[in-house]
Design a protein that fits this description.
Layout lengths: L14 H29 L3 H4 L14 H11 L5 H32 L5 H11 L8 H11 L6 H8 L2 H11 L4 H9 L4 H12 L1 H16 L15 H8 L7 H32 L5
């Protein structure tokens, strides 16, 4: 068994300096929370409070009418709400889990083995971080069209598996694993797959939790774009987005939609935020 020793450095800081630093961070933290609180309050405002001028931050007469109207509108749709939810969960879960497994499996040999072309492959991955999704939109559509995956969920899921930032983070984190630990497992007779699944993956849990937080909101908020045309295959974000296009009369429903779409990603982030901080703080370090 290997024992890890951590050295801690105690900061010599006065109470006054600590208080000023805490107050400084608290002010900026409040500015970050205000938009979320405003969105929550808007979801429970009646229409007369939504259009009052000057706008009020907090709701005076909270109501659930916006959510009732949303349920009524979705109930009149010829595609059930459950179908939109199922499509969204299918894309989000398969895309997120698949990306974590693919990125970690590809990062493991790049981090712990030297083979012909390994540095070149990783350089290509780092280079791909420079290009946004808007740059690769047309080539991506052409590839999906050649494969015959247009108007299928695969056109959204498969490109999400090749998220280059995931591979980069996993490799940087795996490089910090002691090589002696992996060699000891080999001496005990463990196969490469056993080492990857039973040793590497548990030790890089903060990294793949970070990938989950990065990938989940992106897939959760997708509307299918130009890849999905069939109404039966559309996502929840698309269905709710169409409701908000109904004009001023649906402003309250739009506020409820905004709250619903952001609750799930925010909840996921709050649960796993410590892992995100740890991964971002150590992903650039070397052994």
């Amino acid at each position: 068994m290997m024992t890890a020793f951590r050295t801690t450095k105690r900061l010599n800081r006065s109470f006054t300096v600590s208080f000023i630093l805490f107050a400084f961070l608290a002010v900026f933290g409040a500015f970050m929370v205000l938009p979320l609180l405003y969105a929550v309050n808007n979801a429970f405002k009646p229409l007369d409070e939504l259009f009052i001028f000057p706008p009020q931050f907090f709701v005076n007469n909270p109501t659930l009418d916006n959510f009732y109207d949303l349920v009524a509108l979705m109930g009149n749709s010829w595609v059930p709400l459950t179908r939109y939810i199922a499509n969204t969960l299918l894309i989000t879960l398969i895309g997120t889990v698949g990306h974590i497994l693919l990125a970690s499996a590809a990062a493991y040999p790049l981090a712990k083995y030297q083979f012909l072309g390994s540095k070149t492959l990783f350089s290509i991955v780092v280079l791909s971080l420079m290009f946004s999704g808007h740059v690769t939109a047309i080539p991506n559509y052409m590839v999906m069209s050649w494969l015959g995956w247009i108007n299928t969920h695969a056109s959204i899921i498969v490109p999400s598996l090749a998220f280059p930032l995931g591979l980069f983070l996993m490799k940087q984190f795996m490089e910090q694993l002691p090589t002696a630990l992996l060699e000891a497992a080999k001496i005990d007779g463990a196969s490469e797959y056993r080492i990857y699944w039973s040793i590497v993956m548990p030790n890089v849990k903060p990294a793949w939790l970070t990938l989950m937080i990065l990938q989940f909101p992106m897939l959760w908020g997708t509307d299918g774009g130009s890849f999905i045309y069939s109404e039966n295959l559309k996502t929840l974000h698309y269905a709710l987005g169409q409701i908000t296009l109904g004009g001023i009369a649906r402003a309250g429903v739009g506020a409820a939609v905004a709250l619903i779409l952001m609750v799930v990603p925010i909840t996921l982030f709050v649960i796993s935020q410590s892992s995100v901080i740890q991964t971002m703080a150590t992903s650039g370090m070397k052994e």
